[in-house]
Predict the 3D structure of the following.
Amino acid sequence: MRALLTFAMLLVACGNSPGAGTDGGGDDATGDGGTGDDGTAGDGMETDGPVISSCLANTWCAEDVPNGVTGLIHGIDALEANDVFAVGDGGVILRRQNGAWAKMTSNTTENLRAVFALAANDVWAAGQNGAVVHYTGGASWTVVDGADDSISFAGVWGAASNDVWFVGTGTGVHWTGAALSTGSVITGTPVSISGTAANDIWVAAENGKISHYTTSWTLCGGTASCAVPTGLGNSFFAVGAHANNDVWASVPGTGTIRWNGATWTEYSSDTTLFASIYAPGTSNAWGVGGTKVGHWDGQAWTISSPFAGFSNSLYGVTGIGPHTWAVGQNGSILYHHD
């Protein structure tokens, strides 16, 4: 009876966000001062936090997505508490402002796998078949040509508007401010990228260990200074960097490893293999994989289901301050706040 009561309370707590559930980004979707028809913030947009009144602290809630968004949402990035971007199958790009998610015009139908926001008018997304799109404000995104369509991009991270990296299919593609520059070889099949500065970028790869960029890419194996522990195999599935001496990566079997600037230490995440890691602090990190969410509290990983009955696989996690979002199958977007 207690379990049923708890679940019922959670369902009430996870009610619809204000204005959510509508298709597109018109004024009727978000209310005054929200996202207008051009996808930009209205004059009255609040930026100090998301408009959520119903999700209890320290619980996960399912957020409403626009009508028709039912496919895989794979990548997510939070620019600030009240401005979050998510991307997925069929070229879907969503933006969350004033507590509501709205569709944006992506100008691509490719499956998008990653998104990274440098500023409200400087956001990048990438995905399969060499797809790269860029948002600079206004009503829609712009397709950026120059990447080989044989590349399936899995990650994007940037240090500045003229310094953005896209990784996928054994390749690192670099945006220099004017064009995409190809030719940087990264071993294996990159699946995740994260960094702290232009000279401190990390990539996790299947069949390729971890690579580290300072002024060029170094494979973290053998005698390299960043070499991962022997016996862990060659495949890593997520990387999340908090500082140049604090980096997390996920690895089959072990769970996670953590870089302290000199060596890697292994930490168990039970049987969960994280597909994405977000590390905002030394004693605070989040990971998602399968139907589970993991939280690092400074001592150990705690693994749990977001809430009773949740059955969608999760692929991306991000956050800012006390706010965290996770995304996955069947249009799933989950929210948590401390």
User: Anything to note?
Assistant: Residues 1-48 have pLDDT under 50 and may be disordered. DSSP finds two helices and 28 strands in the chain. Residues 188 and 208 are 4 Å apart (CA to CA). The chain has one domain: 2-337.
